[in-house]
Amino acid sequence: MPIGQPTTLTKELLASVLKEQYEAFLVKDRGVPREILGSLKPVMDSPQITVITGLRRVGKSTLLSQIADTYFKKDYYFVNFEDERLLNFSVKDFDLLYEGLISLYGEKKIFIFDEIQNVPQWERFIRRLYDQGYKFIITGSNASLLSQELGTRLTGRSFRMEVFPFSFREYLRFKEVTLDNSSIFTTAQKGKLLKLVNDYIALGGIPDALKYPELEVHKTLYDDVLYRDIATRYKLDNVKSLQELSLYLISNTSALISFNKIKDLLRLGSVNTVKNYINYLESSWLFFVVNKYAYSVKEQQIAAKKIYSIDTGLTKSVGFSFSPNSGKFMENVVYLELLRRQKNVYYYKTGQEQEVDFFIPKDQLFIQVTKQLTDETKNREVNALVTAAQEQKNPSQLLIITESDKELIESEGFKIQVIPLYEWLLFKPEK
User: Fold this and answer.
1) Which stretch of DSSP H or E encloses residue 274?
2) Where are the alpha helices (DSSP H) in 89-152?
3) For FRET with 39, which of 155, 264, 387, 414 sits at 20 to 30 Å CA-CA?
4) pTM value?
């Protein structure tokens, strides 16, 4: 066959690939059990298509193996569409694939498909077999593509879950650190936890980066997202502008950004270009954009945004900063944990232009994040929280997350809980 010519997908080749993949999947390292695993039984027992999304190398395939062991034993099919031998696999090949699976393993009712977004129109096959009573668990690394397809033929038939880098609790399990269930720590435990949480901020929670610290996992991952998931997929001509924008964002995490200012600073031509590029970066799970809380949708749209990274270890490895900026990294860690707790998150600006880092309307929860509570920072953070609570006119939860301070502050009839980051990450504060 001439060099560069696509490999023809034959029954023999497909059978070989499927058998090799399944056997490798059975012996795959199951890694650290993910916290979400225990809550999935109702979803696995339902006919709903389970859609697992998240950044590359964030542990989706490992979670798949944990789900398979926990809920299905060996009674399933497994196919990984990231395999280069399936590069030219198309929707018309699904019947050939199904035939090959039956010939190898007999008839089964459960399909586990990894990185399904690599197959155009994949949802057609899944919808057909779903209607015949088959169960699907699928993963994908592009939120935009998956949401488009789920919103057409699979609407109302799917349950979507997002996988994030390790939480602090999962990080401790990875490090084989065990803690009792008590929320009261000795002085030695506090010191140990403070070191561990600072290590966690520095290293992040991407499993492979923690497992293989000698390799440039963060850099490789970052480049794969920019070039393979964005530039190639969206057929971008100006890759340099995408690089510059992404570097700007990752070097300014936890900061307010303005689309207009970015357009002028990076000479990107139009605000729409900035919005499109940031949307691509969001859809590929590198960044999250947070809106200002406002009753008016228009005000939310035109106000400055806050930007957060998917992982502080990735930010430290790839971003550029003149200072350690540990307070901003702490804030990023808090934001990611709020997402894990399935919170709808905004930042808040009072009528006096005081900023509160996070506001969760459903819980009426305001959160400030600061490294240390000096006299100056205490006055600023407390005043902003009290003003915000007064504006909302509802009984509110007010929280200041610090590196190591713990106390209860009372101001203007409001109680403000000050709690160390490691404690908040380990235990949800009581209402």
Assistant:
1) helix 271-283
2) 94-105, 122-130, 143-150
3) 155
4) 0.93
